[in-house]
Amino acid sequence: MQEEKIFIETLTNPKTQNEAFKRLIQHYQKPLYFHIRNIVLNHDDADDVLQNTFIKVFSNISNFKGESKLYSWIYRIATNESLTFIEQRARKQGVSNEDVQQKAIQKLESDVYFEGDAIQIKLQKAIATLPEKQQLVFKMKYFEEMKYENMSEILDTSVGALKASYHHAVKKIEEYLKTN
Amino acid sequence: MKTDLENNKLKSGFKTPDDYFDNLSDTILSKWNGTYNSEIIPKNTGFSIPDDYFSNNESKLIDTILPQKTKVISLKATILKVTSIAAVLLITIISPLFYNASETKKTELAAMNYLELNSEELSVYEIGQLLENEDISELENELIYNDLD
Q1: Alpha carbon of A55: minimum distance to chain B alpha carbons (Å)
Q2: CA B28, CA B75: separation in Å to the nearest integer?
Q3: Per the domain annotation, does B120 fall within a domain?
Q4: What is the mean pLDDT of residues B122-128?
Q5: Mean of the per-residue pLDDT values for chain B?
Q6: Residue A23: pLDDT above 90?
Q7: Nearest residue in A to B26, CA atom
């Protein structure tokens, strides 16, 4: 905790800021990229959202009061940026968020940065049938193997509710995979 | 107890371009510096104002902003003035002509009346003064004709 406090000071100090930003990116870039990619599905979109997430983190680091962990604060920004990205695209195209997601899944087959096969695409289709929050819970637990305590801070939901949500999500997905 | 999905865990299948993460921090930092550094986007706009611009500007602005009182010229009054002037000019031009004409008529009539009423009492000398040469010639001719008759 003390270590994080010192690191935040280096992020806010103009003299040490640039180097601290670089360390922050290098530490979070991979897990944050896949967290975003699991939501937006396409590499280019994930790249845009990831860069915007870091820019937003740098812009608002002086407002970070340490009420939550830096880790969960950054993930919260990344999650919001990803969901906002989908909403903006849906609004621009005059379709629903679900339609945007369906289109992204359809493009996975020809995506050069997707190495999954039919079962992975089927899994994505199954996930798309879940409510938005349940999708997030499933992806963060199943693909990212995140601890419930960390998810609880990021999604501002109790651990018990998250466990129940994940359990329901798994059941629905298994049902979908069996019947489709 | 783990479900089938958890026992046979599937990967997402997502991957990135080769070396994507190698230069990502530099890319983001240059974007950050490019967007927010004053070297590229100066914080100062470069606009300046004259000294004491705002101290004396209030009254000027009020004068400019508040509507000016517009002088209204009455069309009715103007027409009345023009008509009056035209009428005076017309009277001035026409009345001497009319006056001269009427005066001439008055003089002739007066002379004729005077001759008719006072011809018996007038002396030859007075009549001679009232008559023109032509009148006298005419009278002489009449007398000649009368005598012939």
Answers
A1: 6
A2: 75
A3: yes
A4: 69
A5: 77
A6: yes
A7: A22
- Is position B144 within any domain? yes
Share of chain B above pLDDT 70, in %: 69
For residue B16, the distance in angstroms to the closest alpha carbon of chain A comes to 6
Domains of chain A: 1-114 (1.10.1740.10), 116-180 (1.10.10.10)
Contacts 24+ apart (CB under 8 A), A176-179: A176/A125, A176/A126, A176/A129, A177/A122, A177/A123, A177/A126, A177/B5
The ipTM value here is 0.87
Reply yes or no on whether the pLDDT at A6 is more than 70. Answer: yes
Which chain B residue has the Cα nearest residue A19?
B29
Total domains, chain B: 1
Among the partner-chain residues B6, B14, B28, the one whose CB lies closest to the CB of A34 is B14
CA A159 to CA A166: how far, in whole Å? 10
Tokens of B21: 């993460």
- Taking CB atoms and an 8 Å limit, are B9 and A142 in contact across chains? yes
Residue B114 lies in a domain: yes
Residue B3 lies inside a defined structural domain of this protein: no
Q: Quick check: A37 and B14 CB within 8 A?
A: yes
Residues of A in Cβ contact (< 8 Å) with B21: 29-30, 33
Answer yes or no: pTM beyond 0.90.
Answer: no
Interchain contact A176–B (C-beta under 8 A) = no
Residue A143 sits at the chain B interface (C-beta within 8 Å): yes
d(CA A52, CA B35): 12
- Among A29, A43, A117, the residue with its CB nearest the CB of B25 is A29
Angle between helices A118-128 and A97-108 (to 10 degrees): 180
Q: Cα B85–B87–B93 angle (5° rounding)?
A: 100
Convert the pLDDT of each residue in A108-165 to its tens digit: 988 999 998 899 999 999 999 999 999 999 999 999 999 999 999 999 999 999 999 9
